[in-house]
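Quick illustration, no need to memorize.
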Amino acid sequence: MHQRGIRPSAQRIAVLSYVANTRSHPTAEEIYTGLLPLYRSLSRTTVYNSLHTLVDSGLLKELDIESGNCRYDFALQPDHSHFTCRVCGCIIDMKLPDGIKCVTAPGYIIDTVDVVFKGLCPDCNRKPASATDAADTSDMTDTPT
């Protein structure tokens, strides 16, 4: 944090540590809920402010995997892609496809590459088809034709 010009408060260290040591790519709310038992006076505002500071400094990455729900990842690790299960919602790290960073067009400067694969995780893939279909269509209504 010192190298990035950030004052290392207890809350910022806790937020950074939480994200760096979890594989779930947590949301701000999940971080707040996870840290609250350790920091009883912690506020959501402090978590959001810490996240913005840590993202701006390049220590954390903001992932836009779900519409309207930012998740966070530790930025100081090898480049990787993500997989999200369309049934259970798990998000896992995956190897970045070879050569993906070599794709450029003249005049463009690429700062970040975000690759997200979507499908079924191994656990959901083993479930009977009717169970995964029900989860996918739970918000759909039958309309007579």
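Confidence is low (pLDDT under 50) at residues 134-145.
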